[in-house]
Amino acid sequence: MDYQILQVTRVLGLSLISFLIALSLTPYFNRLISRYQLHKQIRVGAAAPVFSQLHKKKEGTPTAGGLIIWLTVLGLTLILWLLSYFFDRGWSYLNFVDRAQTYLPLTAMFFAAVIGLADDLLGILRIGSKGGGLAVSHKIIIYLLISLIGALWFYYRLDWDIIRLPFLGTYHIGWWYIPFFMFIIVASAFSINETDGLDGLAGGVLVFAFAALAVVAFALGRFHLAAFNGVILGALLAFLWFNIYPARFFMGDTGSMALGVTLGTTALLTNTALLLPLFALIPLIESLSVIIQVTSKKLRGKKIFISTPIHHHFEAIGWPESQITMRFWIISAMGASLGLIVFFLDRFLF
Known about the structure:
The protein is an all-alpha fold. It has helices at residues 2-36, 49-55, 66-86, 91-94, 103-124, 136-157, 177-195, 201-219, 223-243, 253-269, 276-279, 281-299, 310-316, 321-349, and strands at 162-165, 169-172. It has one domain.
């Protein structure tokens, strides 16, 4: 019990440290924005008329704010690892770098963040597909390759090929785990990216999702992974401080894709990938709305929603932006809570 109390203190302490570091990085990020004009470009034209009309006022708002999140997480990780490596005394308690628990999510976060940053910069410079950076097809290919590397690491290096079906048990699925892993990673990344469309929306949704996974990791005794999630939470809350309506800056692909990939990786590491639709309920709904819209247009030639992802539909029918965000936060909190209920019932009763 004393050991668990120490670990709770560790997770909460690292969350607070991360929050303070991310807050302190904000003035430097603002200077970077001013110097290099990292401002959001809004798509215009027939491809997205409703979106353009609703969000034209956001033109010129700084983007790539996700830099604050992942620089805090990766920077703090590196500092604690170095202090632990060279001095050890006391610092090993805070260090959460671990081959089995955090190597993969840290690596995935870094590569997704760099790719997302490149995409953000292309969009700022109006380079690429329709002047908006990388084409969706190119993004899918890139993240399929990233997920394939992670899947091979899980399958061959960690000898991991199991999935947990709540209330039914754990099953070995052999090499089928590789495409399953890839689907979870790509779906998580793009679902979070689609959710990042209103001030504070993706940040708030991710707070509930990572908080739920931190609880899961802690309950499973994976304290390094829980600490890693705590650091992400601290950085996310600091970002959200400035991202709530009216947003001082946007997350950008460098934040949404990095956090989406990390979310999926964490769910796979805790064998709760099938609970991810509850932990990240709003991103699931956002993605489903896009899939339903595209399918309807292809098969019926008609739209079901005024605009997708679905938060744009609610904007179009007159809901205030802050109202949509807060209601989606409530749904996220309920989904994450339900996911934890299922997790603990499955763990302790079956």
